[in-house]
Amino acid sequence: MHNHQDIQQKLQQLELKLRRELLLIIKDVSPDSAELVKTAILGDIIDFMPKVKLANTELFTQLMKLDAALCQLELGLYGLCSDCEMEIEMSRLINEPTEQRCASCQRKYMNEHRLELRLSH
């Protein structure tokens, strides 16, 4: 997963998987919206989800992270930590291709936000 094409392919596979998951949910919530989920660009799907009360879901969070990763890839910034701008460890990106933080910044983030993270679950 070192080159641009491999990363893009892995992110596209993740996008297909997330769209399939959303289709399963959307058929109960808003059956008329299935075509949107199948064909719309990712940003439009993300904008649509709060309208059908799906903004507080793990799926919404995953789609947001995927969109960020795709934008970073397009800009040549993929793999850089959103906090310190150093390279994210390859093992983290292999495990989670939408990772936004290096291990050090992730620990700091979790430590600083542990109370609000605990309250939200």
Automatic annotation (TrEMBL):
Positions in coiled-coil regions: none
Source species, domain of life: Bacteria
Pfam families: zf-dskA_traR
The keyword Iron-sulfur belongs to this UniProt entry's keyword annotation: no
Keyword terms, alphabetized: Metal-binding, Zinc, Zinc-finger
Residues in Zinc finger DksA/TraR C4-type domain copies: 76-109
ZnF dksA C4-type: positions: 81-105
Keyword Nucleotide-binding: no
InterPro entries recorded: Znf_DskA_TraR (IPR000962), Znf_DskA_TraR_CS (IPR020458)
Protein name as it appears in the record: Zinc finger DksA/TraR C4-type domain-containing protein
